[in-house]
């Protein structure tokens, strides 16, 4: 064999290059499975079975409810409220907190693409809140929802708009497929701002995303760097608001179309700040959870076998309750005309749970320990997933660039369609800071403090999951619609309308 290779120099060179490439891939895989010391120091302890069991028992006996943290909700204001995306995770908690503090159902309107289907919104006062089904990518539909007449008992009150509606597509990064995020997240936000002005709103607080500050991870480390254990560039990042005070980055400097669109939307909202319409934005940390419809906890609970390469990854998470509280904290500051010139107005604030970041191992161990439904982690090698992600992206872009191919080649469906290179930038170590938002109002902060920790919030979600599944068919798991699957549904609906219209 060796003589054969010597006699064929080109073949021997190819074999040597291939062997070196395999060694390079193995070393890169090792790096991608490690946690840098800087990150490890931020989360030195792991959740134990005893801690999880104790927390679960406490929450099972005394579940977290809006009544239980009512003292933390900012006091009632004599206003009326329009909540775009009010059927969703953050918007739904805003509605529930408004009701808990004494706002009447007549003073709240949900504007959303889908009707509320969260269990905690289908009974009590929440079930009586007005709902207007709306596609905010349409200026006409948005105006119609905002201009609908209010109940006479509240029609005279000043109007606050909480804009939480968005589509989340975390895996697409090409401008070729940017249209969907642009239509809903950018143009939709402009429609909301315009409609809010015409409806006479004087406060608008929008939900953006801490993922705006994430830089694309440069996975392919030069060989001469990797042996000295130099991580891929941006392999760990701090999520803060510093980028907002710099020029808006170019599209390719965001990890995907979604954060690029949210950054543009954030600038639209913040630049609209004036005495007549005081505005600001809340950036939830990467990984919002708090209901079985979320992607972070609910998405994992829904699987019997959970394939992942991220168990060692450390990230900050934030419960929807905490995000909603931050919106109401912001509104309390902006409720007065003079707030237009305050340091809080016209800017974003990052929000996370009031505790150090955790690892995905903690989350997976929590589910394995507490959930009554089956759950098992299937470890994957990250480099294999990286290599597979590129052909999936190329195939998807080919179908987008040459639509006629869809007649002969089926589109990818399910979760595999989201396995693209961009996804690895949000599957790395991401640590958020509450430092600015938690500063006193007198110092330019929101005075924000979280209601519950990540441990409490995630354990509470499993309590609710187990309770729901005790009433469900034996051995079967309930199906919930996550924000990513909702985005897929909306995209399909838009595509169908275009097809009928011949667009």
From TrEMBL:
<dbReference type="InterPro" id="IPR050425">
    <property type="entry name" value="NAD(P)_dehydrat-like"/>
</dbReference>
<dbReference type="GO" id="GO:0006696">
    <property type="term" value="P:ergosterol biosynthetic process"/>
</dbReference>
<dbReference type="GO" id="GO:0005783">
    <property type="term" value="C:endoplasmic reticulum"/>
</dbReference>
<dbReference type="InterPro" id="IPR036291">
    <property type="entry name" value="NAD(P)-bd_dom_sf"/>
</dbReference>
<protein>
    <submittedName>
        <fullName>3beta-hydroxysteroid-dehydrogenase/decarboxylase</fullName>
    </submittedName>
</protein>
<dbReference type="InterPro" id="IPR002225">
    <property type="entry name" value="3Beta_OHSteriod_DH/Estase"/>
</dbReference>
<comment type="similarity">
    <text>Belongs to the NAD(P)-dependent epimerase/dehydratase family. Dihydroflavonol-4-reductase subfamily.</text>
</comment>
<dbReference type="GO" id="GO:0000252">
    <property type="term" value="F:3-beta-hydroxysteroid dehydrogenase [NAD(P)+]/C4-decarboxylase activity"/>
</dbReference>
<feature type="domain" description="3-beta hydroxysteroid dehydrogenase/isomerase">
    <location>
        <begin position="246"/>
        <end position="367"/>
    </location>
</feature>
<keyword id="KW-0560">Oxidoreductase</keyword>
<dbReference type="Pfam" id="PF01073">
    <property type="entry name" value="3Beta_HSD"/>
</dbReference>
<feature type="domain" description="3-beta hydroxysteroid dehydrogenase/isomerase">
    <location>
        <begin position="82"/>
        <end position="212"/>
    </location>
</feature>
């Amino acid at each position: 064999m060796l003589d054969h290779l010597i006699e064929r120099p080109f073949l021997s060179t190819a074999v040597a290059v291939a062997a070196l490439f395999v060694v390079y891939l193995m070393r890169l895989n090792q790096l991608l499975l490690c946690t840098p010391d800087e990150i490890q120091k931020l989360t030195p302890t792991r959740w134990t079975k005893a801690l999880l069991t104790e927390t679960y028992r406490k929450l099972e006996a005394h579940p977290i409810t809006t009544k239980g943290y009512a003292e933390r909700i900012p006091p009632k204001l004599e206003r009326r409220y329009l909540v775009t995306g009010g059927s969703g995770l953050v918007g739904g908690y805003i509605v529930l907190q408004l009701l808990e503090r004494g706002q009447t159902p007549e003073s709240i309107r949900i504007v959303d693409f889908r009707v509320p289907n969260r269990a905690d919104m289908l009974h009590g006062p929440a079930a009586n809140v007005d709902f207007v089904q709306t596609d905010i990518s349409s200026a006409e539909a948005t105006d119609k929802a905002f201009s609908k007449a209010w109940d006479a008992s509240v029609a005279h009150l000043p109007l606050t708009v909480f804009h939480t509606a968005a589509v989340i597509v975390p895996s697409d990064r090409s401008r070729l497929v940017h249209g969907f995020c642009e239509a809903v997240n950018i143009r939709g936000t402009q429609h909301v701002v315009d409609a809010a002005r015409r409806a006479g709103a004087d406060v608008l607080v929008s939900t953006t995303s801490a993922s705006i500050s994430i830089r694309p991870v440069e996975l392919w480390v030069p060989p001469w760097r990797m042996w000295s254990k130099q991580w891929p560039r941006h392999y760990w990042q701090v999520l803060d608001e510093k980028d907002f005070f710099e020029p808006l980055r170019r599209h390719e400097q965001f990890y995907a179309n979604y954060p690029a669109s949210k950054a543009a939307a954030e600038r639209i909202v913040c630049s609209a700040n004036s005495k007549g319409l005081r505005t600001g934005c809340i950036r939830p940390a990467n990984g919002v959870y708090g209901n079985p419809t979320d992607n972070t906890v609910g998405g994992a609970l829904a699987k019997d076998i959970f394939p992942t390469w991220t168990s060692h990854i450390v990230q900050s998470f934030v419960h929807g309750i905490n995000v909603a509280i931050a919106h109401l904290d912001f509104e309390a500051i902006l409720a007065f005309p003079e707030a237009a010139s305050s340091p809080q107005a016209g800017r974003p604030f990052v929000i996370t749970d009031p505790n150090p970041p955790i690892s995905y191992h903690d989350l997976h161990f929590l589910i394995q320990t507490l959930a009554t439904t089956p759950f098992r982690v299937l470890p994957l090698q990250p480099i294999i997933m990286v290599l597979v992600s590129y052909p999936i992206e190329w195939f998807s872009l080919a179908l987008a660039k040459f639509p006629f191919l869809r007649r002969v080649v089926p589109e990818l469906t399910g979760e595999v369609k989201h396995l693209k290179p961009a996804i690895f930038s949000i599957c790395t170590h991401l640590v958020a800071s509450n430092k600015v938002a938690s500063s006193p109002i007198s110092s330019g902060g929101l005075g924000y403090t979280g209601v519950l920790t990540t441990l409490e919030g995630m354990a509470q979600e499993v309590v609710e999951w187990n309770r729901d599944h005790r009433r469900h068919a034996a051995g079967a798991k309930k199906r919930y619609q996550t924000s990513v699957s909702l985005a897929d549904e909306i995209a399909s609906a838009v595509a169908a309308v275009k097809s009928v219209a011949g667009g």
